[in-house]
């Protein structure tokens, strides 16, 4: 019995666009609520949400029970954290702040069992192998891992070609907020120079045959990114959706003229 197949990885390989949402409420219950909203994938955020591994795992399980594919973003590209996440059953990882091919190469190795990598062997204890019940897990797990690396700085942009060329890197995700900040446009992910950098990066990622990912909280920008070739894209978050919905509801009831939206959304 092999490791479970990864439908998100298959969709990227077949170039089927995947629509996603950020999940940052750090609540398995909230993740389960959102998992019924019809997104192809949900990003469980271990970087900017107050998540530890047990809480990430609980949210992962809540989403995995739905038709949405759970992707976990770790706070950092750390071999030990990657090992723990894969052992709880995560098959698609998003790693932030990748800036060199050397860093990317080590991240690929951290997701693979020897001889192709350095992932520690603990499958007998791991939920990923159904606690040893998937008897061929060790020899079939590698192929179902989907590794997505974040390019969100000028250094990362400079390394896009080498990183995208690496075997074991399935997609590159452009982080517009941090990229804008690094480019000197803090709070302006929609700046024309940031958009130009995204267009250039998308072209290089596509040339390498890898998937192009991005996220935005602006629907017009989302349609632009889709037209520019995004293969997987998040178009909002649970947190900002909750802020907006509850704020607008009160304002509309109170008859306030123009419901104030969350100004942070523009800079996210
Ligand atoms: O830099 C970015 O943009 C991202 O990586 C996405 C943000 O971190 C996400 O948390 C939305 O704010």
From TrEMBL:
GO terms for molecular function: aldehyde-lyase activity; metal ion binding. GO terms for biological process: phenylacetate catabolic process. It comes from the Bacteria. Keywords: Lyase, Metal-binding, Pyruvate. It catalyses: D-glyceraldehyde + pyruvate = 2-dehydro-3-deoxy-L-galactonate. Its cofactor is a divalent metal cation. Its EC number is 4.1.2.52. Residues 18-244 form the HpcH/HpaI aldolase/citrate lyase domain. One of its GO terms (cellular component) is cytoplasm. The keyword Metal-binding applies. Belongs to the HpcH/HpaI aldolase family. This is 4-hydroxy-2-oxoheptanedioate aldolase. It comes from Ensifer oleiphilus. The gene is hpaI.
